[in-house]
# Entry
Amino acid sequence: MPTVVFHKNGATHQGEVKENTNLVVRAGIRQFPFPHLRYECGMGKCSKCACRVMSGAQHLPEPNWKEKKQLGERLAQGYRLACQLWIEHDIELAQDDLEQAA
# Structure
């Protein structure tokens, strides 16, 4: 099972997830530790769930059109939309405390 390490507000949360898990879905049903994940629409329209991928990016698919539209230049800085990712390998993410521009 993939391990997810999630950094937010100076704290580190870690947990295992089943393969093909979406973290926004896990956050929505309050499964630890992902209720700490900031998100809103879950459909790639708002970019509230933008996270910086610190490790494991090589296992992710290429950004889809929603991520390209919402994140623009932030893609090059390692950001991805958590709502658009289905986790199949270990990953480490950080969600900055600042609100992301939509």
